[in-house]
Every structure is written in structure tokens, then in C-alpha cells.
Amino acid sequence: MKFAVRALPAILAATLTACTTLFPPPVQTGDSERDVISKRGQPEHRYRDGSDQLLEYSYGPWGQRTYMARLGSDGKVISFEQVLTAEKFASIKIGKATKEDVLHTIGTPVEKSYLSLTDLEVWSYPYKESGVWNSVMHVHFDRDGIVRKMLNGPDLRFDPDRRFPFGML
Questions:
Q1: Confidence of residue 131 (pLDDT cuts 50, 70, 90)
Q2: With contact defined as beta carbons under 8 Å apart, do 32 and 76 qualify?
Q3: Domain 24-82 classified CATH 3.30.1450.10?
Q4: What element of type H or E holds 38?
Q5: Any idea what the Cα angle at residue 169 is, between residues 66 and 117, rounded to 5°?
Q6: pTM to 2 decimals?
Q7: Do 47 and 35 meet the contact criterion of CB atoms below 8 Å apart?
Q8: Do domains 24-82 and 83-158 have the same CATH topology?
């Protein structure tokens, strides 16, 4: 019993630390870059978009959530949003958007591949379709770096028929 009483503060501290990691404090409009970094850590990537700066934060073991902080020229947060959504994917214009546009809109892909028969580079983004379905959006670029098509489908990493030991590896 004495051990349990002594261990209680350490258990509580570990639990609180886990909660702050899983549920970091919200980023608010008007926060400074320093505030964002203190709440979310160093961004995985930084981009320039005109006079704005974008800070990219990817979350989750499956890479299904990417948040983008947009800071204005004054260094204050204009927006902070989850960008792997149907709405953001729909904003990417086929035949017009470039690789840079895609990076600024939905961030860095989890995987890049190349389709030799069609001569297209493919960037893949796992996400939750409608917040529920494990899906992947594939953005296809031509040699000039222009989006030529976008295809989504189920994320096969979650397909029960492909899981070990009963399915394929």
C-alpha cells in the first residue's frame, strides 16, 4: 500500500504528460510563431506562400492528419487547420495546380511513387474520408509538375483481408 501511495504522483505526472502529447493546447488565431512552436513543437516543414509562412505538422502513426499553421507577414497565426480533408483535396485544380501548390495546400506526401506506363509521379496522402473511412488520396503529376489527376480509394493498410496471419503480408 505504501508503494502505491508513493508511486501515485509519478503515475499522475506520466498520465498528464501523455494527455498533453495526445491533446496539445489549441493554436489560436493571433498566436505568434513562438506560441505555435511552444504548443506543437518544431514543424516538419516550412513553406513561403507570398508574404505568408506555412508551418506543417503531421500527426498519427498512419499519417492521416496534417495541420497547417498560416502566419501572416506580422508573424501571427491567420489560420490553423487540418488539411487532409475532402474540401482541401477539392481545392486542388487539375491541369493548373503545381507541386508547390499541393505542398502549400495539403503538405508533404507520406509516399511518392512513379508510374512508368503513364509517365506520372504520384504523391499519396492517407486520410479519413468523411472523418470515418481509412482512405488514401493519390495526386498524379506530369513531367512539368502539374496535377493531371487525383484518385482516392481505401487505405489497404486497414484491409482485414491483408492482415497477418490470415491474409497477405
A1: confident
A2: yes
A3: yes
A4: helix 33-40
A5: 70
A6: 0.80
A7: no
A8: yes
